[in-house]
Write a structure and sequence with these properties.
Layout: E1 3-5, H1 7-14, E2 24-38, E3 43-49, E4 56-66, E5 69-80, E6 85-86, E7 96-103, E8 107-115, H2 117-122, H3 136-140, E9 146-154, E10 161-168, E11 182-191, E12 194-204, E13 211-223, E14 226-237, E15 242-253, E16 259-270, E17 278-288, E18 293-304, E19 329-339
Antiparallel strand pairs: 1-2, 2-3, 2-4, 2-19, 4-5, 5-6, 5-7, 7-8, 8-9, 9-10, 10-11, 11-12, 12-13, 13-14, 14-15, 15-16, 16-17, 17-18, 18-19
Keywords: Cell outer membrane, Ion transport, Membrane, Porin, Signal, Transmembrane, Transmembrane beta strand, Transport
Subcellular location: Cell outer membrane
GO biological process, one term: monoatomic ion transmembrane transport
Length: 340
């Protein structure tokens, strides 16, 4: 999956400090799909990127400082292979850009632009890895995926239990008093086939007038050739009348070493009093051509109530908007993913 760039090439990136490093890894994901969707008064066919996995390329490296201490970094940028463009033209590395110190028995301290633990957890409590149009959990969830100017501590493993704490200084550098400031916490337990997690996130908006509070609680359990998933999500943001509870149940059948079939049902309950509830039924089939290349097919049937405006999204691609609030959304998606 990954290619190694030896010391001589690393010098291009390290500006003379290559002697202190053994290697840098360049990696990436290319996800391309074709989709047909009906979102009310009109239907749409499109070719796009990042349906099941966010298309990206990145650099990562680690230096052994002795005594179990390591210096690490990740630089990662989203890309659109269907157009050959960056996912965010305003940033060189929009997905991740951080440096850290880690020690096996102490944990890891990271500084920089980081991905929310909500994002990583979503993929572990949903049979659709929190992506593709089939994922009702993804279609109904609201949270901040990445935060700038963030300090994070990731604990070592204590008998299967790990914890993470993130503090984001926001775009103004005024800490939690500033715009886009954030606080996140995660607690996980992993024991053989069992995975459990609970995540909390609070992020101020860009105008420093409101706070988006989101949570995930859920897990999965593996037995025989099946993996069962259960997830709960809440989101509240007063300025946009968001006050939501989401429950999702899904299962993945590992039919063979090369194929899997996922089925799921998700219900979104509007607690704002507006009655904007919704439900989604999704199905995803994956066929691995190799360890690095997979074909996938997804379908989703999303029913909106009252003025709910949920639509069918992807890993890192927006869904086709509804023709009007309250319309239903239907879609099918065929894609290919290649890892390098």
């Amino acid at each position: 999956m990954y290619k190694k760039i030896l010391v001589g090439v690393v010098a291009c990136f390290s500006c003379g400090y290559a002697a202190a490093q053994s290697a840098v890894t360049i990696y990436g994901v290319l996800d391309q799909f074709a989709e047909y969707s009906d979102t009310g008064a009109h239907s749409t066919a499109r070719l796009a990127s990042s349906g099941l996995y966010g298309s990206r390329w990145g650099l990562k490296g680690s230096e052994d400082l002795g005594g179990g201490l390591k210096a690490n970094f990740v630089l990662e940028s989203g890309i659109n292979p269907n157009t050959g463009t960056f996912a965010d033209s305003t940033r060189a590395f929009n997905r991740q850009a951080w440096v850290s110190l880690s020690q096996t028995n102490v944990g890891e301290l990271r500084l920089g632009r980081q991905t929310s633990p909500m994002f990583f957890t979503e993929g572990q409590i949903d049979a659709f890895v929190g992506a593709s149009i089939a994922s009702g959990l993804n279609n109904f969830s609201t949270y901040t995926v990445r935060t700038d100017n963030t300090v994070a501590y990731l604990s070592p493993n204590f008998g299967g239990v790990t914890a993470e704490v993130y503090y984001g200084f926001g775009t103004t550098g005024n800490g939690l008093a500033g715009a886009n400031a954030s606080y996140q916490a995660a607690l996980r337990y992993i024991n053989g086939p069992l995975y459990l997690a609970t995540i909390y996130e609070a992020v101020k908006n860009a105008t420093n007038t409101d706070i988006l509070r989101s949570t995930y609680t859920g897990g999965h359990y593996s037995f025989n050739s099946f993996i069962a998933y259960l997830a709960f999500h809440t989101a509240k943001l007063g300025s946009q009348q968001i006050d939501r509870q989401v429950v999702s149940a899904s299962v993945k059948w590992l039919a063979s070493p090369f194929t899997s079939l996922s089925l799921g049902y998700t219900y979104a309950r509007d607690r704002s009093g507006l009655g904007n509830n919704a439900q989604d039924v999704g199905v995803l089939y994956q066929y691995a051509l190799s360890k690095r290349t997979t074909l996938y097919a997804a379908a989703s049937f999303l029913d909106n109530k009252e003025k709910a405006n949920y639509t069918l999204a992807g890993a890192a691609v927006a869904g086709i908007p509804l023709s009007s609030p309250g319309e239903n959304a239907r879609g099918v998606q065929l894609g290919i993913v290649h890892f390098f």
